[in-house]
Amino acid sequence: MSTGDSYSHDGHRQRLRERFARGGIPALSDYEVIELMLTLCIPRIDVKPIDKDLVKEFGNLRGILDADCAKLMKVRGIGGSAAACIGFIKSLITLYHREELEIPQVEIPTIDKLIKYFKSKISAETREVVEMVCLDSGLKIVPDGDVRVCEGSVNNANADIRKIIETAIRLGASSIAIAHNHPSGDPRPSFEDIRFTKKLSDACRPINLSLIEHIIVGRNSCYSFRRSGEFDVLYDESIPPPRRRHAAESGARGRNVAEGGKTVE
Question: What is the rounded CA–CA span in Å between residue 113 and residue 265?
């Protein structure tokens, strides 16, 4: 690489950073967002060709962030350090949503915050997994309170209700929220999902442990048992009180898919 090429690349990187500093993400095109991310992971070289190859392979930014290190490293120009950097950036998103749940608040954490947290953590999983968060009486996550309960096949995570209860008791939780993913992409609950939720709720009740939410994470959307009307009324910042009954009725018909406060029939 010539010195002139190095200066050219450095100047382009600087211009991207300045545009982001002035206008944020909206000031950049989709490919420039990926390019700016790559400049943080790969020093001193032109990352445009790598940007194009990543988009060709994974489709968009989300596909790139969801890819594991081994798949990323198959793209020319992505080494171990760059792949680890991209994985680290994805992990920051999950950490951000986790810490949102730890902010002291009077109300129960909103459905939207739980959806964002669980979606960022398990939407890219290729096998079914079950996650839980354990909350104290102030509805903050307790230390070590985000737990992967189990992993299973694509069709069945084989969640152990006894393990969930024992974990909540061991961590001193006052309430729990759980989530699992559907690798098929469709978040609508199966009969087994509904039966499992009822059995877990029944197991929580005698020990005064509150099951505040069960979320099913699909590829592009999520299903909230709480919002669907399966639970008692829970504070939800995205649904004004007059609409709660309608949301519950929609969920009772089994067609309520919630994502970020929106209901899709």
Answer: 21
pTM of the model: 0.60
Is a pLDDT exceeding 90 seen at residue 106?
Answer: no
Q: Above 70 in pLDDT, residue 26?
A: yes
Q: Which pair of tokens denotes residue 82? A: 């760059």
* Alpha carbon distance 133, 158 (integer Å): 18
**Pair of tokens at residue 252:** 């009772």
Model confidence at 103: pLDDT above 70? no
Q: Does domain 3-93 correspond to CATH entry 1.10.150.20?
A: yes
What is the side-by-side strand order in the sheet with 222-224? Answer: 141-151, 129-135, 175-181, 210-217, 222-224, 257-259, 262-264
Q: Which two tokens stand for residue 39?
A: 């400049």
Residue with tokens 């545009």: 19
pLDDT of 262: 37
Q: How many CA atoms lie within 13 A of 8 on its CB side?
A: 8
Cα–Cα distance between 222 and 55 in angstroms, integer?
25
Half-sphere exposure of 71 (CA within 13 A, CB side): 12
Strand partners, 181: 217
Q: What are the C-alpha distances in Å from 240 to residues 115, 177, 216, 232? A: 18, 22, 23, 16
Amino acid, res. 226:
R
Query: Where exactly are the structural domains of the chain?
Result: 3-93, 105-264
The residues facing 147 across adjacent strands are: 132
CATH topology of domain 105-264: Cytidine Deaminase; domain 2 (3.40.140)
The Cα-based distances of 103 to 72, 113, 195 in angstroms read 34, 11, 32
Closest alpha carbon to 225 in 185, 265, 180, 183? 180
